[in-house]
Backbone:
DNA sequence: TTTAGGCAATAGGCTCCGTTCTT
DNA sequence: AAGAACGGAGCCTATTGCCT
């Protein structure tokens, strides 16, 4: 037996080889070309193998109006003709259909009582399937409309499913033909106990072994669970070099960062700082070394070190996030290839799992085309999101959650494509009615076999489903399996050391099971892009979920003795305030409530206690924050924010910092005055230029040059166009987050916000001209965010900074936009070094006259000294990271606060030194 | 090639309408 | 006194990113 781990697959078309392939079709024509599936991966000894699988043909199915064999042949002929006609200049004799067979299957789409006869049409070329499906549906074949089935399943996946193969698992076969290699002509000892023969076909890959295999020789058994945790197959990924991982794209979906530069990822994942040198600097170092070895050697070492750090950094990121293991686990469980876990969407995953199950039960899936999707009835239901009773709560608020609500509903009510009878009001009418994106007939005979009371579940939106004793739906069966497995995995995890590899693997398994359970609903209602959407199914799930939630709300309202009041809820969650309880009491009350609520619902629908917010803010729908407690004895609450600016990435760090600190202060002290003082202090720091620029960087996703409305004032777009002008390659990638800050535009009189955008390069290049638009940041970013929370208790935060702005406001009341005014107002202000009053000179006039000269000089000296010391300290920190004395100057990272702080301190130090000079001269 | 819709929020354009300035 | 200019309210669209 030979076994090969399936790491990567592809397919190609090749002329017939009589040694492996059929040469004559049963449809009585000679075969010219056949499809071959290739599988790459290591065998059990770790040798790289390339398999060529013969004898597999892609296929689709159509319902048969008759079961005459003759009819099938006509159908094949007519289809060939239609395809040839559709290629205008094609040879009209080309054969596309390899074979056609009659099979009996159960359509999954809508309830069908009995098996239906289908023609299974096999083709030579996988890429012809789409076209054939379109032609069949369009009525171009035999003057009749055929609804294609399973045409949307990609060839390789179809093969995986039919032969029970899973990505990253083994494919087994007992007979193979080795392709000869000039390098290892004699070394066949490993294969001596196997039934291999030498193939005449030349090799095409660089793999050590290359086999031709016929499909009939595959002997895969059901997968062995628990095997394959240590994973030698993974080595092959790197050796073969066939899978290219775009780490940036992976990280983008894996972790939430403000900006996905290498340096920032390293910092957030590995908690290390690394420098960033501009590519032009690197090439300068590289070239200099050649020209002037003695001078450049130091630079050259940095260059090598830099390259090393970067390459190793990528691996360390992969390792730290356990990406390879995780992705392999996903591949095994979903049964798809390794790379497809990363590159393809979740529909593909659902399909792999669902169609496998469906095939076991002789179900067949339908393939709708775009037009059919388009004409599907629009959904009528949306999830329930309550308008929150917005307030700041200092009494406990409990959060209850329905556990996997959508999957539970699917299971509880046996909701599936295959159990759906369609709309109840259409049932009494005879004939074809619209169903999802195709149509369905439920005959009188079928109906009369069903007892309307006991055999049918009618959803609140008027869709009927047969109950489980009549027909078990595919979706509920699949979900039950998935969730039961997940429970099993989680139980095993409890027994295992948390640091072990096994634990990580199991964790990946349970995570991937959870993901698939959640997207199953999405698959049924993906109306615009879905591969097999069905509005009836999707709508029912949503509507039932709605009624489930409404019922809970109603129960709480009508049972006031629980002491709770619903203040908010979204889709499957409920926020319940206990106005007269302590935290401990609220825990008890909510547990009682959960118990009572669970009596209302059929299994497995279950509501669960999640947490208690003690001190919380419900700002608006999908926006709230609070100090959360998950267990009674928890000492310290956890700051838990949803949807507000502290978790959003479309503002800058300063906003989330100030908001978070303010809220914490408010929660701890319940004293608005303290919050006010804090905010005023922070705003003053910004206005007087004492801040770290890092906190003021916006970084938003760039969608790509052509993906914007022509007039859209998007900073990322403006920057991208600007960059592309000098170097087309410098245009940001699609999805890249482009950093910028808001300053002033002194050239334009009527500047819009977008005209005030500065890239960081520009800021550092024209340091003296750049002034942070502090008014914008305060008035348009920081205060509105605070206002949304604090306005709930009647605080006007905008008034807080009035006196801070008074002296600038009294200036010329120019016409123009707010921004325009700010240009005139934003004279760099400073404080008198002695009395700390705001002035325009380093020393205010009063102090100059009154204070003792020597004292002033001491103050000056101390200040300058202090800054010089700070500067030296920061430089040392920088040295530790870059290993260069001039590191802070050369490094161009935008993710390091130390670098910005150093720039800042340098400036302050120079200012202080100037002040010192000023005082010496003046006095 | 592609799970979904809901939601809040910012920026900026446009129109309407009342107020203020200019001739 | 008539007309122009201004500025705010209200509405719309585009864009972004989070929630379940």
Residues:
């Amino acid at each position: 037996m030979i076994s090969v781990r399936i790491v990567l697959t592809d397919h190609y078309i090749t002329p017939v080889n009589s040694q492996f392939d059929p040469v004559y079709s049963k449809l009585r024509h000679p075969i010219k070309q056949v499809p071959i599936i290739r599988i790459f991966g290591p065998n059990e000894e770790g040798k790289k193998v390339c398999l060529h699988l013969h004898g597999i043909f892609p296929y689709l199915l159509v319902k048969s109006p008759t079961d005459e064999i003759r009819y099938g042949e006509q159908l094949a002929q007519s289809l060939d003709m239609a395809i040839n006609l559709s290629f205008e200049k094609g040879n009209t004799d080309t054969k596309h259909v390899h074979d056609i067979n009659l099979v009996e299957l159960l359509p999954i789409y809508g309830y069908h009582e009995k098996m239906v006869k289908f023609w299974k049409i096999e083709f030579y070329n996988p890429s012809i399937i789409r076209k054939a499906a379109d032609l069949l549906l369009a009525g171009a074949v035999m003057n009749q409309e055929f609804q294609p089935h399973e045409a949307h399943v990609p060839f390789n996946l179809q093969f995986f499913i039919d032969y029970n193969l899973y990505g990253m698992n083994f494919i087994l076969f007992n007979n193979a033909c080795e392709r000869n290699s000039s390098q290892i002509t004699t070394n066949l000892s490993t294969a001596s106990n196997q039934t291999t023969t030498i193939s005449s076909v030349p090799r095409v890959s660089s793999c050590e072994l290359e086999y031709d295999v016929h499909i009939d020789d595959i002997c895969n058994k059901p997968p062995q669970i628990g095997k394959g945790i240590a994973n030698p197959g993974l080595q092959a990924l790197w050796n073969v070099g066939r899978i290219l991982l775009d780490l940036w794209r992976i990280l983008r979906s894996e972790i939430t960062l403000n900006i996905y530069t290498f340096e920032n990822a390293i910092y957030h994942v590995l908690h290390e700082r690394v420098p960033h040198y501009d590519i032009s600097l690197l090439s300068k170092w590289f070239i200099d070394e050649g020209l002037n070895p003695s001078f450049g050697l130091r630079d050259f070492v940095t260059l090598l070190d830099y390259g090393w750090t970067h390459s190793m950094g990528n691996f360390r990121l992969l390792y730290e996030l356990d990406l390879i293991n995780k992705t392999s686990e996903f591949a095994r469980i979903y049964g798809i290839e390794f790379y497809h876990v990363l590159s393809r969407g979740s529909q593909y995953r659902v399909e792999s799992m669902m169609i496998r199950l469906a095939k076991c039960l002789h179900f067949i899936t339908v393939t709708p085309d775009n037009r059919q999707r388009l004409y599907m009835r629009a959904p009528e239901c949306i999830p329930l999101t309550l308008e929150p009773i917005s307030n700041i709560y200092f009494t406990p608020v409990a959060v209850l959650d329905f556990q996997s609500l959508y999957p539970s509903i699917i299971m509880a009510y046996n909701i599936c494509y295959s159990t759906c009878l369609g709309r109840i009001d259409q049932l009494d009418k005879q004939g074809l009615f619209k169903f999802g994106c195709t149509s369905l007939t439920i005959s009188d005979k079928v109906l009369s076999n069903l007892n309307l009371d006991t055999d049918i579940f009618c959803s609140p939106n008027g869709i009927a489903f047969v109950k489980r004793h009549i027909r078990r739906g595919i979706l509920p069966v699949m979900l039950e399996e998935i969730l039961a497995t997940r429970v099993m995995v989680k139980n095993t995890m409890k027994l295992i050391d948390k640091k072990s590899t096994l634990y990580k693997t199991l964790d990946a398994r349970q995570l991937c099971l959870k993901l698939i359970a959640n997207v199953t609903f999405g698959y049924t209602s993906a109306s615009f892009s879905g591969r097999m959407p069905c509005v009836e199914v999707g709508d029912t799930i949503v509507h039932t979920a709605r009624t489930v939630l409404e019922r809970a709300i109603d129960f709480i309202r009508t049972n006031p003795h629980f002491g709770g009041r619903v203040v908010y809820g979204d889709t499957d969650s409920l926020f319940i305030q206990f106005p007269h309880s302590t935290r401990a009491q609220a825990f008890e009350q909510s547990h009682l409530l959960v118990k009572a609520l669970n009596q209302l619902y059929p299994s497995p629908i279950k509501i669960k206690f999640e947490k208690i917010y003690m001190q919380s803010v419900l700002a608006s729908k999908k926006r709230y924050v609070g100090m959360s407690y998950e267990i009674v004895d928890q000492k310290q609450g956890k700051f838990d924010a949803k949807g507000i600016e502290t978790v959003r990435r479309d503002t800058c760090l300063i906003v989330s910092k100030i908001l978070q600190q303010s809220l914490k202060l408010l929660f701890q002290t319940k004293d608005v005055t303290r919050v006010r003082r804090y905010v005023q202090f922070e705003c003053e720091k910004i206005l007087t230029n004492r801040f770290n620029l890092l906190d003021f960087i916006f970084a938003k996703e760039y969608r790509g040059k052509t993906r914007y409305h022509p007039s859209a004032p998007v900073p990322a777009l403006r920057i991208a166009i600007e960059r592309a002008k000098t170097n087309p390659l410098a245009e940001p990638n699609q999805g890249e987050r482009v950093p910028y800050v808001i300053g002033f535009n002194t050239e334009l009189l009527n500047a819009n916000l977008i005209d005030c955008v500065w890239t960081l390069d520009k800021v550092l290049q024209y340091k003296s001209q750049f002034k942070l638009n502090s008014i914008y940041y305060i008035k348009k970013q920081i205060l509105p965010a605070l206002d949304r929370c604090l306005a709930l208790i009647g605080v006007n935060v905008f008034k807080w900074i009035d006196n801070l702005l008074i002296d600038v406001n009294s200036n010329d009341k120019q016409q123009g936009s707010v921004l325009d005014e700010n240009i005139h107002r934003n004279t760099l202000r400073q404080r008198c070094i002695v009395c700390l009053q705001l002035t325009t000179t380093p020393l205010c006039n009063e102090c100059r006259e009154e204070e003792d000269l020597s004292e002033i000089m001491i103050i000056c000296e101390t200040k300058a000294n202090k800054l010089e010391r700070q500067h030296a300290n920061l430089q040392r920190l920088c040295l530790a990271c870059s290993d260069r004395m001039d590191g802070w100057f050369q490094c161009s990272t935008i993710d390091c606060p130390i670098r910005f702080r150093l720039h800042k301190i340098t400036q302050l130090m120079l200012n202080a030194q100037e002040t010192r000079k000023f005082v010496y001269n003046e006095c």
